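Worked Example 4.2. Consider the chain below.
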Amino acid sequence: MSKVAVLDYGMGNLRSVAKALEHVAPEARVTLAADARAVSAADRVVFPGQGAIKGCMQALVRDDLRDAVLQAARTRPFLGICLGLQALYERSEEGGSTPGLALFPGDVRLFPRTVDSEGVPLKVPHMGWNQVWQQRAHPLWEGIADGARFYFVHSYYADTATAPETAGVTDYGVRFTSAAAYGNIFAVQFHPEKSQRTGLRLLQNFMAWDGQTEKC
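Applying the procedure from the previous section yields the following structure tokens:
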């Protein structure tokens, strides 16, 4: 039985993520992991999150989870969702240049105030359905069409669309990284647990994934 730890540091829609994982893999044991021991005991780890990056990074230190998260991201199938993607980069503009976990190079920035192709102002946060364009093959894209739509809620974005670890991009005034992958890590800016059938397929692919891919 696969043991899945959904990181619980007091931020994010944790139960929705856990319920979605249980739906796609009813044989798995999904737990909310609030301490390092629970993270270390899991076969795969999910790092969800909504809210401010500064509070996220402070909570990881406060709850002695930071080292356990770094270890999991280096050794087991690891899925970041929303804030769980942004935290993997070097720094974020949010909160006055907040340092991240630096597993990926690059910065997370606030969306600029801009307009769409018809001159209509784009609202911030970026909220709703948008397309994800796959930048390279990956086991988590299996059965998911290029350009498939996923559900987003965020005001900050990974400004790394041309980076080698970028696995998917999305356009919203700027082109940004909406999926990133390296080794046993896959992380997405969108919410698969809110993205209906396509999002559930991505979670199902994660639960079947052995964490083995070519490193970029």
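The mean pLDDT is 94. The longest strand covers residues 174-182. Compare this with Example 4.1 before moving on.
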